[in-house]
Design goal:
The radius of gyration is 23 Å and the shape is elongated. The chain is mostly helical. Helix content is 50%, strand content 0%. Helix 3 crosses helix 5 and helix 4 packs across helix 5. The two termini are 36 Å apart.
């Protein structure tokens, strides 16, 4: 008996998903009347007022419900990501809540990270179909991460001071270094004015590291592109 040779294409893992078909055939989401009308209304709204429309529809469509979010991601993935991006951006830069922005971003990242950035931008019509881009999402991710240094909660000052990767805060440093005297003298510590990201009481660094930001250096954006896609699923779209 001759058995047909099977390939990776036969593996259910690689089967085309519903959202893939919708992206390829109807990225505008015109098949669904709600999403069709919402997209037109969103594009006709002034940018600084779009988040109000997004919030209104989030409540109206019960998009705080995880089950509803998953179902709508199959209907209009880029539309859903656009809403989540705008809300997360609003929480970060208007409300000033890094924790809330990060929570909202994580929900969005599960969907946007499934797509290769080139395919994402193509589906969004390079911001003409849906006003969002892989570059905007990457920029928001970096902003949230920068303001989340140290973990914890209660604003950037408390986050930075209370907890770092080693479970220490800046006020621990004097205790840690008090007994260590390199070259027979006490270690120099940061004064009240601070030193870069180090607060008063921390050991004063002998050097400083500058991290180039893709938001400042446009040429870096292509190199930094697609990190979330690789993290979530390299075998995605």
């Amino acid at each position: 008996q001759v058995t047909q040779k099977r390939t990776l294409q036969d593996d259910p893992v690689f089967a085309k998903k519903k959202y893939q078909e919708n992206l390829e055939e109807d990225a505008e989401c015109n098949r669904d009347p709600r999403w069709k009308d919402f997209r037109k209304q969103l594009l006709a709204t002034e940018p600084d007022m779009q988040v109000e429309l997004v919030y209104e529809k989030t409540l109206e469509w019960d998009l705080e419900n995880v089950t509803n979010i998953d179902e709508q991601s199959k209907v209009c993935l880029i539309g859903l990501v656009t809403m989540q991006y705008m809300f997360s951006h609003f929480l970060m830069f208007e409300v000033g809540s890094v924790e809330a922005a990060a929570h909202s971003f994580r929900m969005m990242d599960e969907h946007s990270g499934a797509l290769h950035p080139d395919l994402f931008d193509k589906a969004a019509g390079y911001e003409k179909i849906w006003p969002v881009s892989a570059e905007k999402i990457d920029s928001l991710r970096r902003a949230i991460l920068k303001n989340s240094v140290g973990g914890g909660s209660g604003g950037p000052e408390r986050r930075r001071r209370v907890k770092n990767a080693f479970g220490l805060h800046d006020l621990d440093w004097k205790e840690i270094w008090r007994s260590w005297q390199p070259r027979g003298r006490s270690l120099e510590t940061v004064g009240k004015e601070g030193y870069g990201s180090a607060a008063a009481g921390a050991p004063k660094p002998s050097f400083r590291v500058y991290v180039y930001d893709p938001d400042e250096i446009p040429a870096l954006r292509k190199l930094a592109r697609g990190a979330a896609f690789c993290k979530h699923n390299q075998w995605g779209m």
